[in-house]
Batch of 2 targets.
Target 1
Amino acid sequence: MHLSELTHPNQLHGLSIHQLEQIARQIREKHLQTVATSGGHLGPGLGVVELTLALYQTLDLDRDKVIWDVGHQAYPHKMITGRYNRFGTLRQKDGIAGYLKRCESKFDHFGAGHASTSISAALGMAIARDLKGDNFKTVAVIGDGALTGGMALEAINHAGHLPHTNLLVVLNDNEMSISPNVGAISRYLNKMRLSDPVQFLKDNLREQFKQLPFLGETFTPEMERVKEGMKRLAVPKVGAVIEELGFTYMGPVDGHNLEDLIATFQHAHKIPGPVLVHVSTTKGKGYAIAEKDQVGYHAQSPFNLATGKAIPSSKPKPPSYSKVFAHTLITLAENNPQIVGITAAMATGTGLTKLQEKLPKQYIDVGIAEQHAVTLAAG
Ligand SMILES: Cc1ncc(C[n+]2csc(CCOP(=O)(O)OP(=O)(O)O)c2C)c(N)n1
């Protein structure tokens, strides 16, 4: 099947892994060509191609609702919900919008743009569903960056208190906000990603047991049990904090392995109450230049696909606002150590990366947490 024939996401039902892989390739091709021509978000969408296909294969999109956080990563969603043939008009007048837009498609259930709203919106839809006695699924897909926003945590706090409200949260963890993600939650997610118990055992215990005289290989069944015990001592239970908050935790799952993703989502749909599936993805997946420079290719103006270089604008432009702002701030801060630049995960967009480079002690990234940033500044 070619992507152009996919006019409804339920046509994904029953496709083989091989067919899904072909669709994934076609999505990436169209994604790259379109953004190279019109500009737009690049890395976020390329990272969720398999996640989107696998999730949609396990849902009935005529009934179930998927809410994408921010919406800047939803280009694959747009292509498989009937907008492939118009996708070339992305971000042009009367064309396909760069974010989700409710009037554009019945599959866009929530139009945001601001981060950290998806779990609240999905939980609201889940509660409304239950009040009406309906039983469709609601799924929030949220990035690890957006998870640093207070509203996402407020929603988790609420959802974890409602054990009878079915809700699936898919955490798209690529370790990046626009810049590398920051904060204690990000560090915790990283710990979960790294705590691969199988690898831990392979690397450590098996070898050590083999060296014991008389025991060696013959000790295997006992060894397995001891290994399990030691593993629990050595590695914190993956997802323990999330489980303590009332969610069932599943993961981390390889976000580019369709088979694993489909099996995990199928399982997750059967679990009652709030469930969080932790998916590990690579921002920019499939376009080596974007994988390497994940900050630079979060979003791009028109560029040359072969080199990755931006196509220079024909009109000369005045310096950007952020450039002037950063220059002014650095000049002031160099002369006054009491000046500190605070950003809510927008170091590149505000020009503060320059301050970070020059005066790192006078720079703070608080994550996507604007209200905290302002009150922190007041403090
Ligand atoms: C409230 C708010 N602050 C800042 C932004 C700017 N912004 C857009 S995307 C993004 C990073 C999102 O990171 P993540 O959720 O991990 O998604 P990824 O881009 O990594 O897929 C930021 C900071 C925003 N959209 N909303």
Target 2
Amino acid sequence: MVQKIRVGIIGTGGIAHEHIKAYQQMEQVELVAFCDINSEQLAKMAALYGIQETYATKEELLLQADIDAVSVCTWNAAHAECAIAALDAGKHVLCEKPMATTLADAIKMQEAAERNHRLLMIGFVRRFGNDAELIKEFIEDDFFGELYYGKATYLRRNGNPGGWFGDKSRSGGGPLIDLGVHVIDLMHYLMGQPKAVSVYGATFQKLLNRPTIKDSVEYQSVSKGEQDICDVEDLATGMIRFDNGAVISIEASFSLNLKEDEGKIQLFGTEAGAKLDPELELYTNINGYMADVELKKPVALQMDGLFYKEIAHYIDCIANEKDCLAPAADGVQIMAILEAIYQSAATGHEVIIEELASK
Ligand SMILES: NC(=O)c1ccc[n+]([C@@H]2O[C@H](COP(=O)([O-])OP(=O)(O)OC[C@H]3O[C@@H](n4cnc5c(N)ncnc54)[C@H](O)[C@@H]3O)[C@@H](O)[C@H]2O)c1
């Protein structure tokens, strides 16, 4: 019989549900232990999913020699300490996005994976989307020609999730690091992962979490409390330049006076362009005429099963030594871009990525 991979979850809040449900569906996996510093949440989740082994600290969970792999689903500022401790304890790690809150921490995480010869995968879940897979196919068939510009918006009108998401000491930042990270990563991935050279960014802290807005806030953190502070940006914008001349521009908000929430990724190439979200559209020229290509079967991102695909890939990489589709090195690159946007916003100047990395 094939040996099962025994898995633990560190941080059993909102996103942990997706990890737990995925693991519990996999024959090859035995989900054995949970850890959370919030004892009430830990007990609630353990009862919900029938988990017997629960730990109040990551150290206790990591002492269990029969745990092979973990998912790190804590708030962002704890990713590095949990992932490094797990890797040093010989476990494989799937770490939720963003990889860390600083570039220095992300590099330390990558080093920990390398010195322990363990997998560190980053939860760049959008890479596993059906829309991304289809676009990738078109890119590989050279449908777009040279992809030289990507533009993404991830804008919420009143969508600060509260809790740690607004607390910079636990989140590392606001909508840029929480939402922007998804679309920066996806565009960068689809555009062939060129090396980022420089970044120009701006952030705004004008509306904060808008407690005066009486409509209910849709996005909730389980860590939400009465005393929540909000010291992160509410809008971020950035322009990233790559060594092949390509550029990505990005806007992300928690609070903004716009009509409707907007999430749109657009890619522009010499032969064709595309828009993902909410439905995939393709634009090109056919025989000298401008043509919008309509797929017979419309393609929209399917959330159902998305995390399962990501987590199944993690297990496949561990069990079958497959090449990881979202390795630590990619997380480090994206972390450098995020940090550069924040630094540029703070100084008002362009940030050269190489100078940032050498600090
Ligand atoms: N991939 C996605 O689309 C997606 C969606 C939501 C959240 N996330 C990411 O998942 C992570 C968690 O987000 P969430 O919404 O589940 O937050 P959450 O507040 O619901 O849960 C976080 C949990 O981590 C626990 N925790 C914090 N520090 C810990 C530590 N050192 N040891 C053990 N437990 C600890 C908290 O007590 C809390 O229960 C974040 O990094 C977030 O960016 C990813």
